[in-house]
Write a structure and sequence with these properties.
Chain lengths: 784, 282
């Protein structure tokens, strides 16, 4: 029945983007527009004793300059945090611009408004801030020390919250275990690198008291609600537009200081205000990701069957709590048992404040950390038991089925893990590569091979609203769509998702074109403008297809139902006597009596003859609240070659067999997997945000924060298995984060495998040449 | 990433450029390809008040065979150098190094004069110029002078050039009957070298008779590994080369940064010396 769904339809977005006709916030200009530049704290912690803007105000082109204190009465509320995970969580005040204390390098302390971006940037250097430096703490362990400097003076220590989650009797599982393994891992802090840095443009309509805000955001609808709360502006008077947005990876899943600041300045000055981040400014002022310390213990039988999982993690929140930061570790908190069974599970997470850029959701958000821990630990278990990493996984896989209970407490929609792993082993030719690895070892080759597996399961489709309620999340998990047939026979799909690279326009067109029986070029998808699409929960957490895409599908179904009633009326038959195929209703057995959906659209618009109790127009709305999450799974295998002379790790092969259920657009899915793997490899081998003890971000540019390029990566070998989800009528799951979630442990498992014959059990991330070289040298008793 | 304000001039002759520089004083800088200077300006780590863009001085784009020497105009791009037929024999090292700089965009914009004058210790060409005993020609208001590469590099981003001078030419003695090579270690394809090794090797009946080794990014300036060079004399097999490579530690203790500790840098230099000599000999 599907003409478009499942096909590699070329992206409808691309011609515009590839020919430079996209509309990005940075390129927008409105009459009378002014530019804002921030003065940011150069100190990890400092009291702001005074701010002198007089020299800045005299600089050419400068219109205004304000300290945090000057703007204090603009805020009806601080910057929002929507996920207070426990009753006793400590939530610090977080003003869009610091008033008295700056708590990380990059915390805004003053703002200059000028007639050009360059004038504002130059003048910002002239603002004189008298700081009193305060002691800083940047890493988790130091922050938890008894005598640690407090990030927030009003709190008795730097602990933000402790959240626990348990199933079964964990003590019993460990008591009866034949063996246990305990592993400690560090998840380095990562800096998201969307291609487009952040930018905001706020345009006031002073007489009407209205504001239009163009923002590089993943969440225009959520931003609208929250900006209204921060600024005390009626929600109906705030319009948020996310035009073309160049990637997010979670870094634009926030309501940021600069968004609130631009609206406040627009209100105060009565002029449009634009702010554009440079890349290095973004490194300081856009959320970071990961930064956790993990301990995972497995209790197992001597055959390697896991009985229990005990996990304790410490998560660096940074200096303040951004939108969903406390909840990020929880998104992994159910998944430290991965795709495996067991009797008991115990998870504890403590959030910690430090004098660093706040962290929040970064591609995978909690699940990459969880998957890393279990996929690394199960390899350690395999070595202890003395079985192959593929075999230990097969011994522990959850059974194939539907609504399969995981030890983590969730019921997985559909599972079928072993055939998926077998396919990956087959694509790699696991036996042959293993033999080559062993041969090189025996020959004492200077270039060693290592093979790393990662058989992940993850959690998408955020989320059933009632589940979110149980986690104390401050919003629902539904999404919305409106589908309307226009009088000319074209279809208009209005979606509540907010694509920023995902290709929703293409995928939603495929879904709608099939459901309505129209040509894909006759479907227009509208998104990202709260005046055009009034309802939405937006795009993050690989939720768009399995929630928003379903809303589109269901709304199309409702349009077809309405069209059927109209067709029956016009053809003077019962609706049950109609068949619908390829956009045309025909009377069963009388194939020449037809009404096309285009004819019905026109008839519904003219409304000359409608069934009783039917309103004009052919349009339907659907808000889809998913009954369950979806749980994509898959097997990734990485092969690395290690130059033992230099410690350099080269990823020579990478096989990924993902199962994201039914696939709408295989090209888009492959693209998501490619980018995801690249980001996961980056975390394993290249990227790490490093702070000095005084709170300076040492990796402050792309010169020293090492985002790898295509040249550092192999050609990925992709395949799929298809196990449709039962959480939604399309059987889809989500693929936006799977590559990132799966790949990091696959790479490190491969690195450790390459060196395992030397007794190496772990290599910290990123596995830099020097780190690997030292590991080899230490394993060889000091001789490289 | 917006540079501080600056004046910009694009002279049409070298004399005009020199006059502009002289008028601009200490805060005037010549601009060639811009691939070293502009990033520093965008980070506001460099704040010249005047940029004298010499990109229009096409007279400075040449590679000339002058009998004993090859003369290279300062505005030759790395891309042009990597394809210059005049750069053969020992001078082929320059083509080899130029072809390894940055990425294609950098190689099409960046110039040998700009790279050398910028004197970044992580730049690739300076080590090659040291190994080749090259000369650098500087033109100033009072005329031109020739500076040996060994005297040219003074410190990180510091050269023997006066603010009023423009580097106009690099001169390299032609050498036949020798092999050369350059290897560098970096994290990403387009990164600066963590360590680089340039070598020119002459051999006689299977053993090394003469070797010159230039090191990239082991110090604030490019270095000659003289102890290694001496130890290589007479080396005929892998073992002897490896022993000689160990002498790189006598070039001094390298600096440490986020990419490598001093110890690891030294180790990498040793490995690269081994490899570049082995490659050159094969």
């Amino acid at each position: 029945m599907t003409k478009y769904v499942g096909g590699g339809v070329p992206r409808k977005e691309d011609p515009e983007l590839l020919t430079g006709q996209g509309t990005f916030v940075e390129t927008l200009t409105v009459p009378g527009m002014l530019h804002a530049a921030l003065v940011r704290s150069p100190y990890g912690a400092a009291r702001i004793k005074s701010v002198d803007t007089s020299a800045a105000l005299e600089a050419p082109g400068v219109v205004a300059a304000f300290s945090g204190e000057d703007l204090a009465d603009e805020w009806a509320a601080g910057l929002p945090m929507a996920w207070p995970v426990t009753e006793d969580i400590r939530i610090p005040d977080h003003w869009p611009i610091a008033k008295d204390v700056a708590r990380y390098v990059g915390d805004g302390v003053a703002v200059v408004v000028a007639t050009s971006r360059t004038a504002a940037t130059d003048a910002a250097e002239l603002v004189e801030v008298d700081y009193e430096e305060l002691p800083t703490v940047v890493d988790i362990e130091s922050a938890l020390a008894e005598d640690a400097p407090r990030v927030h003076e009003s709190m008795e220590n730097n602990e933000c919250y402790t959240w626990t989650h348990a199933t079964g009797d964990i003590d019993e599982a460990f008591a009866k275990a034949d063996l246990t393994v305990t592993c400690n891992y560090t998840q380095p802090r990562l800096i998201p690198n969307a291609m487009e840095p952040r930018a905001v443009l706020a345009q006031p309509s002073p007489a009407a008291g209205e504001f239009t805000v163009w923002s590089t955001t993943q969440i225009p609808h959520i931003a609208k609600v929250l900006l209204s709360m921060i600024l005390g502006i009626p929600e109906s008077k705030v319009r948020v537009i996310a035009p073309d947005v160049g990637g997010g990876f979670g870094s634009k899943l926030n309501v940021y200081a600069e968004e609130a600041l631009c609206v406040a300045l627009a209100r105060r000055l009565g002029a449009p205000i634009k702010w554009v981040a440079s890349r290095s400014e973004g490194y300081l002022a856009t959320i970071h990701g990961r930064d956790q310390l993990q301990e995972i213990e497995l209790a197992a039988t001597r055959e390697g069957k896991i009985l229990g999982y005990r996990v304790k993690i410490l998560a660096n929140m940074g200096a303040y709590l951004q939108l969903v930061a406390p909840g990020v570790p929880l998104l992994g908190g159910f998944l430290y048992c991965g795709s495996y069974g067991g009797e008991a599970y115990h998870f504890e997470c403590t959030g910690v404040f430090t004098n660093t850029t706040p962290t929040d959701a970064y591609r995978g958000a909690g699940r990459p950390e969880a998957t890393f821990a279990i996929e690394r630990a199960i390899d350690t278990l395999a070595r202890k038991v003395g079985v192959d990493p593929a075999e230990i996984r097969k011994r522990n896989f959850l059974p194939t089925g539907e609504m399969v209970e995981s030890p983590g407490g969730l019921a997985f929609d559909t599972t079928d893990y072993e055939p998926n792993l077998d396919r990956a082993l087959e694509v790699l030719d696991y036996g042959a590569v293993s033999a080559e690895r062993d041969k090189r070892r025996e020959e004492g080759a200077s270039k060693l091979l290592g093979i790393g597996l990662s058989t992940y399961v993850e959690m998408c489709g955020l989320a059933p609203s009632q589940v979110l309620a149980s986690l104390n999340y401050g919003a629902g998990g539904w999404d919305a769509a409106t589908v309307r047939m226009l009088p000319t026979g074209k279809a208009e799909v209005v979606t509540g998702t907010s694509p920023h690279g995902q290709g929703h326009v293409t995928s939603w067109s495929q879904i709608a074109a099939d459901a309505l029986g129209v040509d894909i070029d006759d479907v227009e998808v509208l998104h990202g403008d709260t005046h055009v699409a009034p309802h939405g929960m937006n795009t993050y957490g690989s939720r768009s297809l399995s929630v928003g895409g379903i809303a589109v599908h269901e709304a199309c179904g409702r349009v077809v139902d309405k069209a059927r009633a109209l067709a029956a009326h016009l053809l003077e038959v019962s609706p049950d006597d109609l068949e619908f195929e390829d956009g045309t209703f025909s009377v069963k057995g009388v194939p020449d009596r037809t009404q096309s959906i285009q004819e019905l659209a026109f008839a519904a618009w003219t409304a000359h003859s409608l069934p009783e109790d039917t309103e004009p127009g052919l349009e339907a709305h659907c808000v889809w609240d998913p009954p369950n999450f979806t749980f994509p799974f898959g097997s990734h295998i990485c092969v690395v070659e290690i130059d033992t002379d230099t410690g350099e790790v080269d990823v020579v092969r990478y096989v990924a067999v993902d199962d994201c259920g039914n696939v709408i657009n295989p090209t888009i899915v492959d693209g998501q997997v490619h980018g995801g793997i690249a980001q996961g490899v980056a975390a394993a081998l290249y990227e790490e945000a490093v702070y000095s003890e005084d709170g300076t971000l040492e990796t402050s540019t792309m010169i020293n924060y090492l985002v790898p390029s295509a040249a550092e990566l192999p050609s990925f070998e992709l395949d799929r298995t298809v196990t449709p989800s039962n959480s939604n009528p399309l059987g889809v799951k989500g693929i936006g984060e799977a590559g990132t979630i799966a790949s990091t442990p696959a790479v490190i498992n491969a690195v450790v495998d390459a060196l395992s014959h030397m007794g190496v059990e772990d290599v910290a991330m990123p596995a830099t040449p020097e780190r690997v070289w030292r590991t080899i040298r230490d394993a060889n008793g000091g001789a490289a | 990433m917006i540079p501080a304000a600056f004046e910009y001039e694009r002279p049409s002759s070298l004399d005009e450029a020199l006059a502009l520089l002289a008028d601009g004083g200490d805060d005037a800088r010549p601009l060639a390809g811009g691939h070293s200077l502009l990033p520093l300006m965008r980070l506001r780590l460099a704040r010249p008040t005047l940029l004298v863009d010499i990109g229009g001085l096409n007279d400075l784009r040449y590679v000339r065979d002058e009998g004993d020497q090859i003369a290279i105009g300062a505005l030759c791009t790395h891309h042009a150098l990597s394809h210059a037929p005049e750069l053969s024999g020992g001078c082929g090292l320059i083509a080899e190094v130029a072809g390894q700089i940055g990425d294609p965009q950098v190689r099409h914009r960046g110039t040998i004069g700009g790279s050398v004058a910028h004197a970044d210790p992580a730049s690739d060409l300076p080590a090659a110029l040291l190994a080749l005993d090259a000369e650098v020609v500087a033109q100033g208001p009072g005329g031109s002078r020739s500076i040996a590469a060994a005297d040219f590099f003074v410190g990180p981003l510091m050269s023997a050039l006066e603010p009023s001078e423009i580097l106009t030419e690099v001169r390299v003695a032609k050498r036949e009957g020798c092999a050369s090579g350059y290897q560098k270690f970096q994290r990403r394809a387009q990164d600066w070298a963590i360590v680089g090794v340039a070598a020119v090797v002459e051999s006689d009946g299977g053993s090394i008779s003469n070797a010159a080794i230039g090191l990239t990014n082991m110090s604030g300036t490019p270095l000659r590994a003289t102890a290694v060079e001496e130890a290589l004399a007479g080396a005929a097999d892998e073992g002897a080369i490896a022993e000689a490579a160990k002498k790189v530690s006598e070039a001094g203790t390298p600096f440490a940064d986020a990419n490598a500790s001093a110890e690891f840098r030294l180790h990498l230099a040793e490995v690269l010396i081994r490899r570049v000599i082995a490659d050159a000999m094969s």
